[in-house]
Design brief:
The protein is an alpha/beta fold. Helix content is 35%, strand content 22%. It is built from 15 helices and 21 strands. The strands form four sheets. A seven-stranded mixed β-sheet has the order 2-3-7-6-4-5-8, with helices on both faces. A six-stranded mixed β-sheet has the order 1-17-21-20-19-18, with helices on one face. The chain has a four-stranded mixed β-sheet with strand order 10-9-11-12, with helices on both faces. The two termini are 37 Å apart.
Length: 493
């Protein structure tokens, strides 16, 4: 059975199973080290030129520290916040990152086990000049990553990220003398501070949540969500919590990406526990999936839709999501009298568009809620607090709330690329073919039809063109995606 808002995943369509060129010159197909403007990620282990190993961690951390130093006031003491999720490689990676920052003359605010949004908040609270989050997000346990933040606690821009990559490639950094080494300041209080900031928001109504007497099930996939989500729920007035995989040992009990096919346990638990709502987070707690009382998925795309519906009902204004997110957000925004805008894919692009349009809420269709009243970052904690408040005030079941929104289905398919293929020429030919429709080309090519859309974009991490399509039925979305794949293949031939 396909749940409302569920995503369908089509077959992989091959042009040739080989690699094309990417932003990082060192990237090769099937390699386990990926460099991008957002940071560096890879699998743990391997030789000196493979994976996320101590050598690559030192090199990239030093490049980031150099970038900070180059843009900072002379003589200013540099401070960087470091937080990590609970994956097994975390202590090892953190020790190398912290030691490298100290060797570059930086003081380190070590908040240790912390969510990505918690780390973002800590950067601004500490008046730090940056932050590093050690998390591979939804990737399996063998992966880890360094995600880089600026002094605003936001991910680096494209220009800044490319500068860090350039510095790393050229090894253009110098280590500090013994008298200039940095120090470590341990601070384990940021979980409580983050929860306190969420509870202080005007649109979070603890009394309403407490009065609703909710029974809540959670799946925190054995990471830092297991430390913070129960405490958040108790602070919000939830009396009964049914916990799955809350022990933060990092040996994930299931695939950590919060997609329906990975969430059978909580789906089965919901009716058995007579839970009113279920919440699922990824390892770094910036994505939120919701489960209905009957065990059906609310639809990860609809997390942002529902939260936006609540926010807009009290704070009229604009919204933003990326080009590959559901049209339902646009529908809800316009119903409240606001304007919807789409950004290129990627959190940094969503944030930029939100600032440009003065959006009161935004995010990404993968369950990422960005609420500027708190901070400009995807945050599952604020998503949970706002959703529970909304549910308490609506006085309806989660499945009934889901039924109030337009029903769309997203199909995700892909075309693998031949070395040397001219992707820009392919995308241009698609643009010309659909010139009579509404075409957006800020990130690949998106074609908006009256009742459906399709988005083609080149992946930054794999030699593929991603093909996203949305329509009112799964069959229509799949068919639209296949139609565009046929066009791509015919243009290549």
């Amino acid at each position: 059975m396909v749940m409302p808002g569920a995503q369908s995943y089509g077959a992989r369509h091959f042009l040739c199973p080989l690699a094309s060129t990417f932003a990082s010159s060192s990237y090769r197909y099937n390699m386990t080290l990926i460099k991008s403007i957002s940071g560096i990620r890879g699998t743990i282990g391997g030789g000196p030129d493979e994976g996320l190993n101590p050598l690559s961690i030192v090199k990239f951390t030093a490049a980031y520290a150099t970038w900070i130093r180059n843009r900072s006031t002379e003589g200013k003491k540099h401070r960087v916040v470091v937080g990590r999720d609970a994956r097994m490689s975390g202590p090892m990676v953190k020790s190398i990152v912290v030691g490298t920052l100290m060797s570059m003359g930086f003081d380190v605010i070590d908040i240790d086990l912390a969510t990505t949004p918690t780390t973002e908040l800590a950067v601004t609270n500490e008046l730090a000049c940056g932050g590093i989050i050690l998390t591979a997000s939804h990737n399996p346990k063998q992966w880890n990553a360094l995600k880089l933040l600026n002094e605003r606690g936001e991910f680096l821009s494209d220009e800044d990220g490319r500068e860090v990559l350039r510095l790393a490639e050229g090894e253009a950094f110098r280590f500090a003398s013994v008298d200039s080494l940095g120090k470590v300041i341990v601070d384990n209080r940021y979980k409580e501070r983050h929860i306190g900031r969420v509870l202080a928001l005007d649109l979070v109504d603890v009394d309403a949540i407490r009065a609703a007497n909710f029974r809540v099930a959670i799946d925190c996939v054995n990471s830092v969500g297991g430390l913070v989500i129960p405490d958040l729920l108790y602070a919000l007035g939830v009396r009964e919590i049914f916990k799955l995989h809350c022990n933060p040992h990092g040996n994930f009990s299931h695939n950590p990406e919060p997609l329906p096919e990975h969430l059978n346990e909580i789906s089965a638990l919901m009716p058995h526990a007579r839970a009113d709502v279920g919440f699922v987070v990824d390892p770094d707690v910036d994505r939120l999936a919701i489960v209905c009382e009957n065990g059906e998925m609310f639809g990860e795309e609809y997390t942002l839709v529902a939260v936006s519906d609540y926010v807009l009902s009290h704070t009229p204004g604009n919204t933003v999501s990326n080009l590959s997110s559901t049209r339902a957000l646009r529908d809800v925004t316009e119903r409240h009298g606001g304007q919807y805008a789409a950004s290129a894919v990627g959190e940094v692009n969503v944030v930029e568009k939100m600032k440009e349009t003065g959006a009161v809420i935004g995010g990404e269709g993968n369950g990422g809620v960005i609420y500027p009243a708190l901070h400009y970052g995807r945050d599952a904690l604020v998503g949970i607090a706002l959703f529970l408040t909304f549910l308490a005030k609506k006085k309806m079941k989660v499945s009934e709330l889901r039924a109030t929104y337009p029903n769309y289905f997203i199909s995700k398919q892909r075309v693998e690329l031949t070395p040397g293929i001219d992707v820009d020429a392919i995308l241009d030919s698609v643009k010309q073919r659909f010139a009579g429709e509404r075409v957006t080309d800020i990130d690949g090519v998106k074609i908006d039809f009256a009742d459906r859309w399709v988005h083609l974009r080149r992946s930054n991490t794999e030699p593929i063109i991603r093909v996203y399509a949305e329509a009112h039925t799964k069959a229509e979305a799949d068919a639209l995606g296949r139609e565009l794949i046929d066009i791509i293949q015919s243009s290549h031939d």
